[in-house]
Design a protein that fits this description.
By secondary structure, the protein is of the alpha+beta class. Helix content is 36%, strand content 25%. It is built from 8 helices and 15 strands. The strands form 5 sheets. A 6-stranded antiparallel beta sheet has the order 1-3-4-13-8-11, with no helix packed on it. Strand 3 and strand 4 form a beta hairpin. Helix 3 runs parallel beside helix 5, helix 4 packs across helix 6 and helix 5 runs antiparallel to helix 6. It is elongated, with a radius of gyration of 22 Å. The structure holds manganese (II) ion. The site of manganese (II) ion (MN) has 6 residues, from strand 6 and strand 12.
Length: 254
């Protein structure tokens, strides 16, 4: 769900209270909130196009910020402006690119990054986020969410990590069978085995984690991440939780 909007009342509540009311309660409270009909990301995209076309740069910057929160990537808005320049006017693109840099920063970011808010990640992630992963919170840095998908045949969960969230080093132990399968579904994350380089994860990637191998997995520092985790059945299976992935090691990862 889109955030409750108060910009109207914040800026114009005194001068134009009726305008503020319609802005916050009807335009954002009702129209933008109709997510089944058109999701917030797509509403941001068309609003950016409309404001670009009219050359309304202060509102355009505000909607670039909102679009970022709704999951539009820098590459997507740059591409949008590149196309719109042909329809709306070349100089408007020159005026807009600096706004994109102000909102997104000038550093390169992965097209898989999802730095937006939690509600917007819910829209793009294929599995429901589920409940805060309180039972395992002591073995995580940052907030994760756990959504059981099935407990039959192979117990399967959707795990969602907020940006910067990762689990501690751990081992899925078994005397035969066992291990864990990860299937990445949204955002950008990492997997690392003890003594090896960390491996960047994108939607569609599959990681087969052998039993009795020390490892961790989680989100990139600037992106939400979701994967399916399957607990492969085996004999004498148990998880052993070890030390956290220290900030120095983690923060070096792009
Ligand atoms: Mn694991």
């Amino acid at each position: 769900m889109a955030k409750k909007q108060t910009a109207g009342r914040d800026h114009l509540g005194k001068l134009a209270p009726e305008f503020a009311k319609y802005n916050d309660d009807v335009l954002f409270g009702e129209i933008w909130a109709r997510e089944e009909e058109l999701n917030p990301r797509d509403r941001s995209l068309i609003t950016i196009a409309a404001l670009f076309s009219a050359g309304l740069y202060p509102q355009l910057k505000a909607h670039l910020q909102m679009g970022k929160a709704h999951g539009l990537t820098k590459q997507e808005v740059v591409e949008t402006v590149t196309q719109l320049a042909f329809y709306c006017g070349w100089p408007k693109a020159w005026s807009t690119f600096p706004l994109i840099e102000e909102v997104y920063g000038s550093e390169d970011t992965s097209p898989y990054n999802f730095p937006g808010d939690q509600d917007s990640f819910n829209v793009v992630a294929p599995y429901p986020m589920g409940a805060p992963n309180d039972a395992f919170a002591q073995y995580f840095i940052g907030q994760s969410y756990l959504s059981p998908l099935t407990m039959d045949v192979i117990p399967t969960f959707a795990v969602t990590f907020e940006p910067g969230c990762r689990n501690n080093w751990h081992i899925h132990k078994a005397t035969s069978g066992g291990g864990q399968m990860l299937i990445c579904t949204a955002g950008r994350g990492w997997y690392q085995e003890w003594g090896k380089e960390a491996q960047e994860l994108h939607p569609g990637d599959v990681v087969a984690i052998p039993p009795n191998v020390k490892h961790w997995h989680g989100a990139a520092k600037d992106s939400w991440f979701q994967h399916i985790a399957q607990e492969v059945p085996g004999t004498n299976t148990a998880s052993e939780w070890c030390e956290p992935v220290d900030d120095e090691t983690y923060s070096k990862l792009p």
